[in-house]
Amino acid sequence: MGSRIKHLVGRHGLGRDLRTAAVAVVVSGMVMATPSVASMVTNADKVDGKHAVSAGASVSQRAGKLVATSKQGYLPDNILKKARDADRLDGLDSSALVPVVAKPESVQTGVYGAFGDAGYNASVINFRSKLPGYVGSGRYTLIPSGGPYTADCPAPGEVATVEWLCFYTTANFGATLEVVGSISPPSTGASADGFYINFDCSGVCFTYGTWAVRAPAAGQPPRRPGVSGASRSSTVG
Asked: What span, in angstroms and rounded, lies between the C-alpha atoms of 223 and 217?
């Protein structure tokens, strides 16, 4: 009886070993055949029913097709006909980017400077906010470094008189203020957008400082360019 059981077990073990060997042979054959199978695979003709073109294709060539990126990973510059309007730019609403007209009688400040040799030297200034009108011809005061100050220009950064320009000198060597004018339209005084200051220089000279302007009052008719107002200006050499 014992010898019969051993015989059956031996036959069962041998069968299991044969099955294991057969599976190993099949797997080995599949692995070895992979390169030859891969060599028979070709590029797909379409992706989701659409052909593909390279990044260098023309607009007409890529119409209705998929467009691949360039070697650098970019799409063509003209891939979009028109970009969608951004709701904001750097967090600002578009209304914040429109030039703003200054409030009546508000004050704006800035800096100026002119450097050069013999002749005229100028400094051009743009207002940060457009004025509601002009600053008339002669309506400015140039304050020497350290004063004295005037009723119109009581201190650096301040303007007491409506529609008036104050220039506060920080340093000056050999420069004399000749005229305050507007480039557009050409005139003396300041336009709604800004002004220039022209200095005469007999040799090497420089001058720089700060300026302040008070906008015209509400309802005040804008002065015409070049029409003189009451001037209390001064010059320094």
From this structure: 12
Q: In sequence order, which residues have a C-beta less than 8 Å from that of residue 193 and are 6 or more positions away?
A: 126, 127, 130, 131, 182, 184
Q: How far apart, in whole angstroms, are the C-alpha atoms of residue 64 and residue 137?
A: 64
Phi, psi of 173 (to 5 degrees): -140, 105
**Bond before 148 cis per omega within 30 degrees:** yes
Residue 40 contacts by C-beta under 8 Å, 6 or more apart in sequence?
none
Give 16-65 as a DSSP string.
HHHHHHHHHHHHHHHHHHHHHHHTT----S-BTTB-EE-TT--TTTTTTS
| DSSP secondary structure, 158-189, as one string | ---SSSEEEEEEEEEEEEEEEEEEETTTTEES
Q: pTM score, two decimals?
A: 0.56
| pLDDT averages per 10-residue partition of the chain, 237 residues | 50 56 55 54 73 83 84 80 71 69 94 90 92 92 95 97 96 94 87 94 93 87 47 40
Which letter does DSSP use for residue 138 in this model? T
